[in-house]
Design a protein that fits this description.
mainly alpha
């Protein structure tokens, strides 16, 4: 899978995870159906893996994030930042085939620059750096 396909999958997973926090009554499948024709099968497949993984391991992922965050409770973090962190932590620590931490961090920072606030990239970078060191 090309890097761009993985990046697109991460961005798609972020968008869907973000939406499901605001509209929990709409299924992930419904959101995936909306995007199905906009992406290739490989991108959809990896996004689906990320979403299912984050949702299945959410408590454990959030626990790792919380343990590395001295000043912010996970539920008080910006929704975009929280979901970027969840995707990266899941890929680093919980995926069947984990990706290298420096790659996960770099991808998360780039996505935070695109979707987050002006502070998101440094926040995501610092927190994920802590997660990689502590856990």
């Amino acid at each position: 899978m090309k890097l761009t396909a993985r990046r697109q999958a991460r961005e798609l997973a972020l968008q869907i995870l973000f939406q499901t926090e605001f509209t929990p009554t709409i299924s992930v499948r419904t959101f995936m159906d909306v995007f199905e024709e906009s992406y290739d099968a490989e991108t959809i497949s990896y996004a689906d893996l990320l979403i299912k993984g984050v949702q299945a391991d959410k408590a454990a992922v959030d626990s790792k994030i919380q343990a590395s965050s001295a000043h912010w409770k996970v539920e008080r973090m910006a929704t975009i930042d929280r979901n970027i962190l969840r995707i990266a932590v899941w890929e680093m620590k919980f995926a069947a085939d984990p990706i290298k931490e420096n790659i996960a961090i770099n991808e998360a920072v780039e996505i935070a620059k695109k979707y987050g606030t002006s502070d998101s990239a440094s926040f995501v970078n610092g927190l994920l750096d802590q997660v990689s060191k502590v856990h």
